[in-house]
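Chain A, query sequence.
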Amino acid sequence: MPYFHSKSTEKTLQPELFWRDNFAVERVENFAAYLMTNPVEIQEILEQLHLNIFKYDNSSFIALTEKNSQGEIFILGSSGLDHDSLVGLSWLRTTTQFPTIDCLNSGKEVYIDSKQSWLQRYPQSVLFREKMEIEEILCHPVTWRISSRYCLSLAFGPKIAPSSRDLDILRAIARLLQSYLSTTQDRKEQVAQEPKASMSRRIESLAPRHQETVNLVIKGLNNQEIADQLGLSVNTVKSDLKKIFKELEVSYRSQIYAEILGEE
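Chain A, predicted structure.
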């Protein structure tokens, strides 16, 4: 499987060698080259991380979460979380029983290394942990905009030999994402805007194909799955999503989902 590449370099690394010797470091450096030469939306970055790096270590999900100055919590992007899981996480807005919430509240790293540790610290969310088959989770604070707090969560199932789950490499990924966000995204505070139409109204104003695309996004489908459903290429779906995001006045697909939930 081809891995991330810069404009001048392309490397193919064997997945089973990911956590051995210097291959993990090489993958991180290669991913850095990919980010710096191919700026993309956060959702795509997380999907690429999940599919091309962490799935070989049996990752359950990866998510970037924000807690703004009003205390509201949003999942800005995720991979590995289906629609039902996202619905199940709606209680994140009120609970403190989750490692991501601890990370957002404290601004410090939270690491849970076993089922037993989870049960002791977060008994109210044990059913979610079991559903997602999480054995280990690292929640690392990400410093981006000063008005909010952010957390990158990396959740894993049982270890698969010969993986070793090098925590330093996981932390390096979080720092890399932080660097990327700080240097490529708009860091200006959002200015007050006139009240805008509801998300449902904005979706209704889209072209028919774009409405179909948004409905599939809301169901939790990724770009490839949307392309398969609509009989389009992945590049066409990506292009459509950029136009859709602009028309809906959002930056991430999770914002669409969050606004829809807020209207119910």
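The first strand starts at residue 59 and ends at 67. The domain at 15-184 is CATH 3.30.450.40 (Beta-Lactamase).
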